[in-house]
Amino acid sequence: MPSIFAYQSSEVDWCESNFQHSELVAEFYNTFSNVTFFIFGPLMMYLMHPYAQNRSHSIYVFCILFMFIGLFSMYFHMTLSFLGQLLDEISILWLLASGYSIWLPRCYFPTFVGENRSQFTCLVIIATVVSTFLSFLRPTVNAYALNGIALHIVYIVFQEYKKTSDKEFCRVIEVSMLLWALAFASWISDRFLCSFWQRINFYYLHSIW
Questions:
Q1: Domain count of the chain?
Q2: With CB atoms 3.0 to 4.6 Å apart as the test, which of 48, 65, 77, 190 could cross-link to 31 if both were Cys?
Q3: Residue 181 and residue 154: Cα distance in Å, rounded?
Q4: 169 domain-assigned
Q5: Ramachandran assignment for 80, one of left (phi > 0), alpha (psi -120 to 50 degrees), beta (any other)
Q6: Which region among 79-83, 86-90, 162-166 has the lowest average model confidence (pLDDT)?
Q7: Which residue segment(s) compose the domain that 201 sits in?
Q8: Is residue 174 included in any domain, yes or no?
Q9: What pLDDT band is residue 56 in, cutting at 50, 70 and 90?
Q10: Who's near 146: CB < 8 A, 6+ residues apart?
Q11: 19 in a domain, yes or no?
């Protein structure tokens, strides 16, 4: 049994050809596309500073987790190691959990929580800890489970879109959903249409995602 640190010890392998540009980097473009996380993470912290001062400093936790995704995703795609896969997926899970805790409208809270955000945050943390341990059981399904959570977020955003009459807010939602749809289509295409993209030497979809 290979070490969890070993190169290509993960069962997940994306469409990009391995070690094409370097003997040390398995997926070159998938690895270095994560540099954007280290650009936008600090930028979000700067732009969201007024929000943090007036509403919640938890936004800084969200931004730090965002940068951790970039770090762990870079490590995973560089090595295709089992540990890298888990770190990548778990960091995304915790980012989603922090987003739920900070921004989910109270009308979507479970009834037994009422409108208490502190209790809801505790519930999210417990669920995320349990999910973190479960992610070790069937690692090949983790990515699909995370995309399932994303679909739930899309549903909530759509419900909020129907409620609002704020044109600027609607525009933000529309652009966000368009970008998400393009990203999701890239992920699906890379996963299930890999042979086609390899035939035309275009295997950058996961790095775009």
A1: 1
A2: 77
A3: 10
A4: yes
A5: left
A6: 162-166
A7: 28-208
A8: yes
A9: confident
A10: 89, 92, 93, 96
A11: no
